[in-house]
Design brief:
Layout: H1 10-25, H2 32-46, E1 51-56, E2 64-70, H3 85-90, E3 94-97, H4 103-110, E4 116-123, E5 129-136, H5 147-158, H6 170-176
Helix pairs in contact: 1-2, 1-5, 2-5
Length: 191
């Protein structure tokens, strides 16, 4: 098992991202919960993490545990998710260990056998908020370098249209693919 002193292998992260995106390509009609579970399992297995949890605010608007998968017999954080979902889903993610991170995440960490927590979330097409929470043990590499991989995979898993929703028109789809509005980066400002 890798140690905390060894820098992360970018090739390993790229391989995990590749497998995750490839799996999502075959899951276009699956539920958000199922897509997130596949992504989370691929990351946990590929990076030798002890497990993960998925939380959502559907249907009551309060965060609740939707799915948890522990790959080893270790104590995860409590099932109650006492973080506000807004800062998680509106940002790139949150990280905590015993010394740093949001107080609520540090409290979650203290209720477990884990050394670190990484939380990444986003919005599904129906505006439901989803969060994946990953865990690292004391002898595992730090989770911080995993943030870009997890952010990309969670956003990809959440971006598929839900099978119960009607397909959007081509023009609406094209507009939704814009990542940056032209005026937001200065383009189109020339007179």
């Amino acid at each position: 098992m890798p140690t905390r002193d060894v820098p992360p292998d970018p090739h390993l992260h790229a391989a995990v991202l590749h497998r995750g995106l490839h799996a999502l390509d075959r899951m276009e009609r699956d539920s958000t919960r199922d897509r997130l579970a596949v992504v989370a399992d691929l990351v946990a297995q590929g990076l030798d993490l002890p497990g993960w949890s998925a939380f959502s605010d559907e249907p009551a608007g309060q965060p609740h545990l939707v799915h948890r998968h522990m790959l080893r017999p270790v104590t995860p954080p409590d099932a109650e998710f006492d973080l506000r979902l807004g800062p998680v889903v509106d940002g790139f993610g949150l990280h905590a260990n015993a010394m740093t991170g949001p107080a609520a995440l540090q409290r979650r960490l203290a209720s477990s056998e884990m050394a670190e927590i990484l939380v990444v979330g986003g919005y599904a097409p129906d505006a439901t908020r989803w969060v994946l929470e990953f865990y690292a043990e004391h002898d595992a590499p730090t989770l911080v370098p995993l943030l870009p991989v997890m952010y990309a995979m969670v956003q990809a898993a959440l971006s598929f249209p839900h099978p119960a929703r009607p397909a959007r028109g081509a023009s609406e789809t094209a507009r939704s693919l814009l990542l940056v509005q032209p005026k937001a980066n200065g383009a189109g400002d020339a007179d």
